[in-house]
Amino acid sequence: MGLFNYSKPGPGIEKDAPKKKGVFLFFEIFFRKFWKLCQVTMLHFICSLPIMIINFFLLTPGIVSFLSSVSANDPVFTSNVVAQYTTAMSVFIILTLLVFCGSGPASAGSAYIHRCFAREEHAWIWSDFFNKMKENFKQGMLVAVADIAVINLGLVAMRFYYNYFLQTGNDLWFILLFVLLIFLVIFVFSNFYIYQLMVTFESGIVNLFKNSFIMALATMPVNIILSLIIIAASFFFYMTFEPIFAVLLSFLLISGLFRFMIEFYASSVVKKKILNNMPQTTNDEPDDRGEN
């Protein structure tokens, strides 16, 4: 007998113990896989930096314009305060976009790991993350470019419609603003599902967007609840702590918790709505490459 008996089983889970479901299963997996989720968050964050930097430079001018208009009517809002709030708001919005929309190939890698955790399947954090990034690089980049274009152009259009509504008083501009806002919300919600579909099925980019939009519409109430929880918690952190500390918390915990929350739910929706209803044929099986 050696000093350490590696074959001795740990306490584990009782064989006849009832399987947890829903939010109870989510938190059980979250706490059990906490450090592995931190590793996935770190990889996702680092590999997402190029997309985040692009969004920073695209979104910051609009934030500066907004805060400058506020400072013009409020003497307390000095230029230094504007600069401080510009950086804080930019970081807050960019990290929120990372949680809600992902960041292309890096989000494909994290989506696969999160899917394995949600299904309680084995995954190699580093190798599977980068393998899925590589396998889905083209589609992931197309999704990232579409996100950047739609969100940034949509925000510009919203400011345009709102300013014209204030100048003219014409309700048509307000209606256009409302319709555009609804479209942007559904577009963001579609990103909850697109990466799960990407790493689970072999599909063209058009079908990916179409099916993710359908899922976003079909699960709208839960999407709204998840979004309100994420926004409220993120806003609390950024209003309570210094920006640098809030960023560190976002990096270590918030992004990992919230992105896993989204992927956990998206994985269950894909399994329930599609996988469980698919005929088990050898020609049309989902692409579950790399599962162990």
Summed up:
The chain has helices at residues 22-32, 34-47, 49-72, 79-101, 105-118, 125-135, 137-168, 171-200, 205-218, 220-240, 243-273. With 292 residues, the protein is mainly α.
Task: Give an overview in words.
The protein is an all-alpha fold. The protein folds into 2 domains: 22-48 and 104-271, no CATH class; 57-67 and 78-95, no CATH class. Helix content is 77%, strand content 0%. It has helices at residues 22-32, 34-47, 49-72, 79-101, 105-118, 125-135, 137-168, 171-200, 205-218, 220-240, 243-273. Helix 5 (105-118) crosses helix 6 (125-135), helix 5 packs across helix 11 and helix 8 crosses helix 9. It is globular and about 60 Å long.
